[in-house]
Amino acid sequence: MAKRSLPRHVGFIPDGNRRWAASRGLSKEQGYDFGIDPGLVLFEICRSLGIPEISIYGFTQDNTKRPVPQREAFRSACVSYAMEVARRDAALMIVGDETSDLFPPELRDFRTRRGNGMKVNLLVNYDWEWDLAGLREGSIRSHAVSRLDMIVRWGGGRRLSGFLPVQSVYADFYVVDEYWPDFKPEHFDQALRWFREQDQTLGG
Amino acid sequence: MAKRSLPRHVGFIPDGNRRWAASRGLSKEQGYDFGIDPGLVLFEICRSLGIPEISIYGFTQDNTKRPVPQREAFRSACVSYAMEVARRDAALMIVGDETSDLFPPELRDFRTRRGNGMKVNLLVNYDWEWDLAGLREGSIRSHAVSRLDMIVRWGGGRRLSGFLPVQSVYADFYVVDEYWPDFKPEHFDQALRWFREQDQTLGG
């Protein structure tokens, strides 16, 4: 059983924006804006480490059933984040159902990966059933997303919540209890340190 | 966000048999036999609590690439466990590829659920790709297995290792560091206590 060094593909579940906002006396939807900067810091950290690919849970089709102010807030936060990442020369791909009105039109061009540099997959209006339903026509809809080595989730939840089920099958799962807007680089340092200590068995 | 009481369906990943054996100076394959009794104790606990359904990771198609003595040992342990659970009046279903030579013929009749009582799904010669490939003909091959509320894994690993990816999408994941043959009822007590404290969001 080989010990690993750096993960080749990390998934991020930036959860806890609404609880963070509520804990500060803000309305829930105000939490999302505070998630953009941490995401850019994390992007730069991954890039400087030489991690080839990252996937980020933006929002799901289920999430869009939330009250409209929240929906507008996380939609807008995802668009801002995506545009900034594209501007910083990442190879951005948006993964999600672009046939729905809830898919931001600004992001349509990125349903196919654009750009060079670190691969960034942002899940926008994603749904695991939508993803797997692609198998009926040959392959999952997220087929251009590689297998995940590690998933890091903020906000204390110990579940995948429908995040890329196929790519997650052998991923090591690390949970940070702090809410996502309270992101600190140390969280990811600790996750990487922990990852290096795990055995890689891949079911063998 | 409602607090839950008892999970309706729990998945178990009884990992660590080989490491347990090695730690006692036994050969790796000797570990599996020591996993049968803990599995029966856990079965009785779940039944007495009134949990309607449990799923247990027996072995995968990947596992069968291990050395023959190991393969024979976990295969035989799974057959013994299944037969005993059936004798104890569970509603047993075996989930796995029965078209392969590595599927134990004794278990073939249980590919369709048999019996009444608590539902027990035992994964035998299972493979997540085999499972999902069923979608090409309409539905996943494990379609008779319901969604999981919680997964408990022994042996310290924080990954699903291909365990029922569709049913796991919203499952809370609890890890016990002890090896599976060192199972104690307290492990599951703690898991259930922890489960009750989690919010149930189901992506809403």
Automatic annotation (TrEMBL), chains A, B:
Belongs to the UPP synthase family. Z-FPP synthase subfamily. One of its GO terms (biological process) is polyprenol biosynthetic process. Keywords: Transferase. The keyword Transferase applies. GO terms for molecular function: ditrans,polycis-polyprenyl diphosphate synthase [(2E,6E)-farnesyl diphosphate specific] activity. InterPro entries: UPP_synth-like, UPP_synth-like_sf. It comes from the Bacteria. This is Dihydroorotate dehydrogenase.
